[in-house]
Design goal:
single chain
Length: 66
C-alpha cells in the first residue's frame, strides 16, 4: 500500500497547527509558573507578617505596663 502524500498546503496547515499548540502550551506553562511564584511570594509575606505579629506580642508581654 502506498503512503498517502500530503499536499504542501496540508503540510503547512499541520505545521501551523503544531506551532499553535506548542505556543498555547508554553503560554499555559508560563501562566502556571507566574501563578506559583505569586502564591509563593504571598505565602512568604504572610509568614513574615505572622512572625512580626508574634514578635510584637512577645515584646508587649516582656515590657512592663506603666
Amino acid at each position: 500500500m502506498k503512503k498517502p502524500t500530503m499536499s504542501r498546503a496540508e503540510e503547512l496547515a499541520l505545521k501551523s497547527q503544531l506551532d499553535s499548540d506548542k505556543f498555547l502550551e508554553e503560554k499555559q506553562d508560563a501562566e502556571r509558573l507566574r501563578t506559583e511564584r505569586i502564591a509563593d511570594l504571598k505565602a512568604l509575606r504572610l509568614e513574615k507578617e505572622e512572625k512580626q505579629r508574634n514578635a510584637t506580642r512577645k515584646l508587649a508581654r516582656a515590657v512592663p505596663k506603666k
